[in-house]
Amino acid sequence: MIRDKVMREVEAESSPIGREVRYVEADSEVSLHEILDILRRHKWALMVASLLGLAVSILYIVYVPPWFHAEVLLKPTEQRQGASSGETDAAGAIASLTGINLTQGNPTAEPMALLTARQFDGQFIQDKNLMPVLYARKWDAQKKQWKPSRWFNPPDLRDAEAYFHSRIVNVEENKKSGLITLSVEWKNPQQAAEWANELVDRVNARMRDRALREAQYNLDYLKGEMAATNIVSLQQSISRLIENELQKLMLAKGNKDFSFRIVDPAQPPKVRVGPGKPLILAEGLFGGYLLLALVLIGRHFLDRSRPHHA
Asked: How many C-beta neighbours within 10 Å does residue 211 have?
């Protein structure tokens, strides 16, 4: 049995088909020894590629300005409830008919939505004239206009809103503690801290002004209804609604931190968050080596797989 098996193997080797199959299978194998031999034979070229990758990384670090991270810690302001819990059915009915909100609901929902709204960011960009700041490379400071280019159109406010919203500003809420962190990442540490603090001030001012307008409108309406009726019970219900709106008005006027109270204001950061120098240098050093190694190995096996004619 052993002898027959050997004879069949010898016959397979002696046949042209057997040699061809054995040859193709040997060519398709990837040997670690071959790869190491390729890297050894081209070690100087690989070293040069690593140095070139390192040089590109250094140029990138020098050319790309650093980014800084500033953040402000916020606590939602506790809004005092009005007299809604003690209102009579008549007062509640009047309030529902007139659109007066007697319950506070979630006091942070609307200011959080405003803080993360693109329109709010766009108004901030317009008021502070940040378009030339956000796109400084495309802006001609001397001519006060966008640099002409055939490759891109001048950015508009929608581009700035998307860039500011997705890359620069970030808002996170801790569900357990209820604290909110607003962070700003920008190339200028002083500007990053100023923008973070000012965004909070703007939300508070926007929400306070809205509350003042609504309370004053409701007061004017309720006073007119009070003067138009002679029913005592209805006058009492309207009087309680007027008292509720007066409380809202006084709270809005005397509360600067209307929606958010700043627990820890943003300070100009000293440590850069990007680009990371060690990581970029390592990527350039090993990236150049790896790229050339893949090219050499791929070329070697591609040449070996080609048919050779006698």
From this structure: 19
> Do 202 and 176 share a structural domain?
yes
Query: Which pairs count as long-range contacts for 43-49, CB under 8 Å and 24+ apart, including other chains?
Result: 45/292, 45/296, 46/289, 46/292, 46/293, 46/296, 47/289, 49/288, 49/289, 49/291, 49/292
Tokens at 41, concatenated? 């034979």
- Condensed to tens digits (0 to 9), the pLDDT of residues 130-151 reads 999 999 989 998 998 999 888 8
Tell me: do 246 and 221 sit in the same domain: yes
234, 262: one domain: yes
- 109 and 250 in a single domain? The answer is yes
Handedness of CA 127, 133, 134, 138 (dihedral sign): positive
Q: How far apart are CA 252 and CA 203, in angstroms?
A: 13
Supply angle C-alpha 307, 35, 56, rounded to 5.
Answer: 110
pLDDT digits (tens, 9 = 90+) for 235-278: 888 888 888 888 888 888 878 888 899 999 999 998 887 666 67
Within 8 A by CB and 6+ apart from 74, the residues are 179, 180, 181, 182, 200, 260, 261, 262, 263
Residues 58, 95, single domain; the answer is no
DSSP secondary structure code for residue 136 in this structure: G
197 with 214, same domain: the answer is yes
CA distance between the termini of the chain: 39
Cβ-Cβ contacts under 8 Å for 130 (sequence gap 6 or more):
124, 160, 164
User: What is the domain range of residue 230?
Assistant: 73-274
Bridge partners, residue 140, by sequence? 145
Q: Are residues 11 and 113 in the same domain?
A: no
- Does one domain contain both 202 and 156? yes
